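Record pair follows.
FIRST:
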Amino acid sequence: MSASTTSTSGRPIGALLRRAEAADADAIGDIWIAAFGATYAFPAAHTEEQIREWIGHHLLNETETWVAEEDGADIIGFLSLTDDMLDQLYVRPGSTGHGIGGRLVTLAKTRRPRGLDLYTFAVNVGARRFYERHGFVAIAFGDGSGNEERQPDVRYRWTPEP
């Protein structure tokens, strides 16, 4: 699934999307940690070491994970899917706004054509707008008691049109 296309802003998208491999764990960890830190004023619930261990032992082994490579070199984003959830979607800070996230969401919809749910933190207004632009609808609002960061969250659902 590769192609160099053009985003809605007219900027080129030169990323290759491919299944993640064990060797990608460090790059995925770097993106997760950098994106979380750049987005939220509150800390992650786990240390960087725990996050990296979780990526290497759980995420890459128990989810369907894809990466976006910039011109076949650096990994700039990733997506993880479970049976019915878009579990993780992160793009490296500085690489957002170029259509990578949109391509990853399109891939998720292709891989889960019956529909998908996802969670995002309520304070992440940018992510909420992004998912809503991509057809996800807010279906539940949580008070933070259901996540490790104890932050209010929003559950979204995408259902394909008949």
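SECOND:
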Amino acid sequence: MKLEIASRAVSEAERCARWWRENRPAARMLFEKELLDALDRIRVAPLSGNAYLAIPGREHRRVLMPESRYHVYYRVAGPDHVRVVAIWSAVRGRGPTL
């Protein structure tokens, strides 16, 4: 399974990981560990994430990172291709613009 990560998602992940390292001394690497676990899950079982319909006719999915409370938003773009489009805090009360 090809896993592509959009530049927006890379930027969001880098920003979040930096914040966790600087502001969560007891769990500096938690965000990065959970993100790697989520990406592995998506790669192995792309349909395991919850459906998220942000754009009519274009289904996205999301996987929750339970400890850090972020979602990884992605789209199954083909039989062997998944595109991660956003990393977004679940506590914001709304999803990202996809």
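COMMENT: Helices lie at 7-23, 30-44.
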